[in-house]
Amino acid sequence: MFRIGIIGAGWIAHKMTLALGYTDEACVYAIASRSEDKARSFAEEHGIAMAYGSYEAMLDDPEVDLVYIATPHSHHFAHAMLALEHGKPVLVEKAFTANAKEAKILIDTARNKGLFITEAIWTRYMPLSHKIREIMDSGIIGEPRIITATLCYMMEHKERIVKPELCGGALLDLGVYAINFARMYFGTDIVKTVSNCHLGPTGMDMHECISLSYADGKMANLQSGALCLNDRQGIISGTEGYIRVDNINCPETVEVYRNYELVERHISGEDPISAYRYQVLEAKRCIEAGLPESEMMPHNETISIMQQMDELRKEWGVVYPMD
């Protein structure tokens, strides 16, 4: 059994623990929180073997095979670095870090120590996400030319959205999914970016529109925000049809239209929470194979996305203390 130790006992740790109940290849073995009571309560709720009141104590446990960082964006760098310093492979929840500078330092440290590290952007690892690429490459929609992707939730009062010290704003929390959606299917040869952003009272981006132009003439129009609800759809439009993805945050249904007629439908058919397990299973595969990174989310892609988001924030005037 591949044993996971989680740093942070919040809602994302809860989801990961539930997800690993859908596989017999890995389990949450340990939970660590700065509050021993919180760690014990979490462990009792989920039947986890070990509960630690400090991160260092869990990282000293030789039974931990992989550390999952489930704290806010603002703390990813410090907590991932702590795990690396203890010789542990690391799976870091998205956004990987606060900025590209931190991402480079973490990845360089992991490489120097010969340790695996990857970003836990779960859509990169889902089978249905890979199916979308297969459909697009099949030629059924002709030549792909435009992507649209949108992801909005009502989150305007959440601390992690409004506080600069927690790397707030919609971009790192929601926009990162839209950016990943575009890059997964249209690549990275971006020649022009045009964007618009609304800032909230604390100076954090609350919703934004981002338009990307590619060297080959393709375009991507992306929207994310914390001030409304929307359909969360992704559309890949081609010369002979289009692919409609229901929920870019966790693809559940993929429909293929040719000349406006539905010709294929693919449904995930599983509890959305269970999809968190795929990133752990990929980390397990890589670690057991002695790989430093996953081809599903390479280090250079993580750094490039952080750079892209740094540039957008600079344009908007969104600043974090760690910048």
Report what the structure shows.
The chain is globular, with a radius of gyration of 20 Å. It has ten helices and 14 strands. The chain has 323 residues and is an alpha/beta fold. The strands form two sheets. Strands 8-9-10-7-11-12-13-14 form an eight-stranded mixed β-sheet, covered by helices on one side. Strands 3-2-1-4-5-6 form a six-stranded parallel β-sheet, sandwiched between helices. The longest helix is centred in the C-terminal third of the chain and has 18 residues, at 299-316. It starts with a strand and ends in a 7-residue tail after the last helix. Strand 13 and strand 14 form a beta hairpin. Helix 5 (100-113) runs antiparallel to helix 10.
